[in-house]
Design a protein that fits this description.
This protein is α+β, with helices and mostly antiparallel strands. The protein has two domains: about 90 residues, 2-Layer Sandwich (Phosphorylase Kinase, domain 1), CATH 3.30.200; about 220 residues, Alpha-Beta Complex (Aminoglycoside 3'-phosphotransferase, Chain: A, domain 2). It has eleven helices and ten strands. A hairpin with an 8-residue loop joins strand 2 and strand 3. The longest helix has 25 residues.
Length: about 325
């Protein structure tokens, strides 16, 4: 190794460092992307308690090579009692473009993105390893989040709603507080669908685009879950309300066919509508914690999600099933 040139440092859920590394190794890229525990105490605690960075590191070490969709190449990973460090190839090296969090996808882009999710979910549908060597993607994750939800859901929802008051209607705010107070029961409903490998955080800022189409990055929340939750999260955060309303039924039908799901369209739509609540919660929690996403972008995504849950009366339909 001859020289290391830092290009940028960004601090959010992790500290992210982009480097140019001069070396003679023929198989290694010159541009590296490092993910370290966040230097912001609040973000570090929020990610450390459920072990998000360690989960992403394990995902890249044990599972990423199996995926049939584009993800960043991992160069190295280290996990210790002090945290986890992940070294990835910088997407700029392969002419891939990460999207900004507030990006609104057009019709062609969202069809490609839903197609990618369908491909991923079909690959891991009902994978028996979720009960064995991939069990770390299942119950342990949910138990940890249930405990944290019992402690933090209501105060974080209260703070997030105060910060986003101008972007969320009164009825949605009231229903969101009821959801937060009954979060564990609501999560049992949302976790009740068929299991596959899910990204669980696929807002626009976690997508990249290259010549071959879209790919997904930032796998800290990866888990075994209901695949339509990823679709709901994507459509709620990445589309303007007008585009979502015009495309969501057709996109869900395409997803159902491409994944080979045997459920009816009515059942899939019910699960989709309920899963919209989690997308809304995730964006509000991001705002409440602070420093995880540019605030203007965060508020844009909250407004999109608020419109989606209002359009479908999602909170009422989920709460009635919980």
């Amino acid at each position: 190794m001859h020289a290391v040139q830092p290009l940028s440092v960004d601090v959010a859920t992790t500290t992210r460092v982009r480097l140019i590394v001069r070396h003679d190794a023929p198989t290694l890229p010159q541009r590296w992307f490092l993910k370290l525990p966040s230097s912001r105490l609040r973000a570090r605690l929020i990610t450390a308690l459920p072990g998000l960075v360690a989960t992403e590191t394990r995902f890249y070490r044990e599972l990423a090579h199996e995926l049939s969709i584009p993800v960043p190449d991992v160069l190295a990973s280290v996990t210790s009692r002090y945290g986890a460090t992940l070294v990835l190839q910088d997407l700029c090296e392969v002419d891939a473009e990460p999207l900004a969090p507030e990006t609104a996808l057009n019709a062609g882009q969202v069809h490609a993105a839903v197609g990618l999710l369908a491909k991923l979910h079909r690959q891991f549908a009902a994978d028996r390893r979720f009960e064995a060597e991939l069990s770390w993607l299942g119950e342990r994750v949910r138990r940890t989040e249930d405990r944290l939800g019992d402690l933090l859901a209501v105060p974080l929802m209260r703070r997030g709603m105060r910060l986003a008051a101008a972007h969320v209607g009164e009825t949605t705010r009231e229903q969101a507080f009821r959801y937060a107070s009954r979060r564990r029961a609501c999560m049992q409903v949302l976790d009740g669908g068929p299991k596959t490998l899910t990204h669980h955080d696929c807002h626009p800022g976690n997508w990249f685009w290259c010549d071959h189409g879209p790919g997904l990055l930032d796998w800290q929340l990866v888990r075994a879950g209901d695949g339509v939750g990823d679709v709901a999260y994507l459509l709620a955060t990445a589309l303007t309300p007008e585009v979502r309303r015009s495309l969501e039924t057709a996109l869900l039908e395409d997803y159902r066919q491409d994944t080979g799901l045997t459920c009816s369209m009515a059942e899939l739509m019910t699960r989709y509508v309920q899963q919209l609540c989690y997308a809304f919660e995730a964006m509000v929690m991001t705002l409440a914690i602070g420093g995880l996403m540019p605030q203007d972008a965060n508020l844009t995504l909250i407004e999109r999600c608020a419109t989606a849950v209002s359009d479908h009366d999602s909170f009422a339909r989920l709460l009635s099933a919980a």
